[in-house]
């Protein structure tokens, strides 16, 4: 039997085989999918050896009696290029620039930059559930832990923009100048190390608003010092952007840091102005009846009310919140917690029979949690974005994601600058 008659993309979904790959130092599953998506450009050279190894390992696992050669594995790899799955968000057919996606999550940066005709040539994300969502929507398995040298070795040369929504950590800068070496042991150090080696034309970093005051402001000072002085980038003053000003009804503030390599001669940059598009919660709520599982029990509603009353008596503002249809949601937060701060009224439910284990009856006041799809819309993800994980993981993923419209508006400004070169 010919190799190409034995293989299909479906073979690469074998769960046992994926487990074996996770245990390997090489990230051949990621290399394989990155090769398939970059076979038409020079970037493929960075992925081809391990992509061939992935195919060979697969056949050794599926058909141990045959022992195929690397030459045969390469032939199979070339065949698989034309057998790729259809995905919701393929790369543009005629890309105008290249970018990499670090701390990729579920692909908010990628979605924004692809919409601007960008081609993603490397992706990294360590969370296994986020990887599942990313692969379902973009057809690529992200590489894993970016702190590992083996992962960094996959990053290609010659890309234009580095994107990273990195977590913030305190730096050990006591008595030091707050430079590159002082960031060792933090995830920003890994980002800086990649910038130093690959020298992209532009960088786009995103973080929580609290980065400005983190460690009494020392963290942001160190980041800017490293980017400007150690790495040689023009970095205008970072700006806090609010998602609600860019077409989604969510009050979500994040700090954006943009930079350009100094030798390009770019000496000014203007962040995008808020759009005039007025949106409210009603614009993103489900129009059909949602499952009873999203409705709170009477017992839980009473617990929330009592909790809020206790805090109110102490002068605190903590507690649940029901957002009116003409209102703006609170930020969907990291980890998917705080769903009770974005409750809504929805009176479409007629069957109040519980389908999950709850204490008491389902409330008759129409109070429910927002669905994962509604959270996706709050972050600017289109409805054909696949949600392939549990509700708990989906809330976590969208809570951790970037707001796509705000990212895209800023990315557009970055690309406009690069096109002037």
Structure description:
- The chain contains 14 helices and eleven strands.
- With 421 residues, it is α/β, with parallel strands linked by helices.
- It folds into three domains: 79 residues, no CATH class; 198 residues, Vaccinia Virus protein VP39 (Rossmann fold, 3-Layer(aba) Sandwich); 84 residues, no CATH class.
- The strands form three sheets. Strands 1, 2, 3, 4, 5, 6 and 8 form a seven-stranded mixed sheet that branches. Strands 7-9 form a two-stranded parallel sheet. Strands 10-11 form a two-stranded antiparallel ribbon.
- Helix 3 crosses helix 4, helix 4 crosses helix 5 and helix 6 crosses helix 14.
- The longest helix has 16 residues.
- It is globular.
- The N terminus is likely disordered.
Measured between the Cα atoms of the first and last residue, the distance is: 54 Å
Radius of gyration: 24 Å
Instruction: Examine the secondary-structure arrangement and name the CATH architecture of the largest domain.
Output: 3-Layer(aba) Sandwich
Gross morphology is globular
User: What would CATH call the class of the largest domain?
Assistant: Alpha Beta
CATH homologous superfamily (4th level) name of the largest domain: Vaccinia Virus protein VP39
Roughly what fraction of the amino acids lie in strands? 5-15%
Count of discrete domains: 3
The profile of the biggest β sheet is: 7 strands, mixed
Would you report the number of β strands? Answer: 11
- The helix content, as a percent range, equals 25-40%
What is the name of the CATH topology of the largest domain? Rossmann fold
Organism: Mesonia algae
Family: Belongs to the class I-like SAM-binding methyltransferase superfamily. C5-methyltransferase family.
Catalytic activity: a 2'-deoxycytidine in DNA + S-adenosyl-L-methionine = a 5-methyl-2'-deoxycytidine in DNA + S-adenosyl-L-homocysteine + H(+)
GO molecular function, one term: DNA (cytosine-5-)-methyltransferase activity
């Amino acid at each position: 039997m010919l190799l190409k008659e034995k293989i299909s993309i479906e073979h690469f979904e074998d769960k046992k085989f994926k487990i074996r790959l996770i245990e390997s130092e090489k990230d051949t599953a990621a290399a394989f999918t990155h090769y398939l998506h970059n076979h038409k450009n020079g970037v493929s050279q960075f992925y081809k050896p391990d992509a061939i190894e992935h195919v060979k390992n697969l056949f050794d696992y599926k058909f141990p009696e045959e022992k195929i050669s690397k030459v045969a594995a390469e032939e199979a790899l070339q065949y698989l290029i034309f057998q790729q799955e259809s995905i919701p968000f393929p790369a543009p057919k005629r890309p105008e620039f290249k970018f990499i996606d670090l701390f990729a999550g579920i692909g908010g940066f990628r979605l924004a930059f692809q919409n601007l005709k960008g081609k993603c040539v490397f992706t990294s994300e360590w969370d296994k559930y986020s990887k599942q969502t990313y692969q379902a929507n973009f057809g690529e398995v992200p590489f894993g832990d970016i702190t590992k040298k083996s992962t960094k070795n996959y990053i290609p040369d010659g890309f234009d923009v580095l994107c990273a929504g990195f977590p913030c950590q305190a730096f050990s800068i006591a008595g030091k100048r707050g430079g590159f070496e002082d960031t060792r042991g933090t995830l920003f150090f890994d980002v800086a190390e990649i910038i130093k080696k690959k020298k992209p034309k532009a960088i786009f970093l995103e973080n929580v608003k609290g980065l400005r005051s983190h460690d009494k402001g020392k963290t942001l000072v160190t980041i800017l010092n490293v980017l400007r002085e150690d790495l040689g980038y023009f970095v205008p003053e970072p700006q806090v952007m609010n998602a609600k000003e860019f077409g989604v009804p969510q009050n979500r503030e994040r700090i954006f840091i943009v930079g350009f390599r100094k030798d390009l001669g770019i000496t000014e940059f203007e962040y995008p102005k808020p759009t005039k598009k007025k949106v409210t919660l009603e614009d993103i709520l489900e129009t059909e009846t949602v499952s009873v599982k999203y409705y709170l029990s009477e017992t839980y509603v009473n617990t929330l009310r009592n909790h809020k009353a206790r805090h109110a008596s102490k002068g605190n503002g903590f507690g649940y919140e029901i957002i009116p249809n003409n209102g703006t949601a609170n930020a969907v937060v990291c980890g998917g917690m705080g769903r009770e701060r974005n409750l809504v009224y929805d009176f479409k439910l007629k069957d109040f029979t519980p389908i999950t284990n709850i204490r008491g009856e389902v409330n008759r006041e129409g109070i429910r949690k927002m669905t994962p799809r509604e959270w996706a819309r709050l972050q600017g993800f289109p409805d054909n974005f696949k949600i392939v994980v549990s509700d708990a993981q989906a809330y976590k993923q969208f809570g951790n994601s970037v707001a796509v419209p705000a990212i895209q508006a800023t990315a557009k400004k970055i690309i406009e600058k690069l096109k002037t070169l």
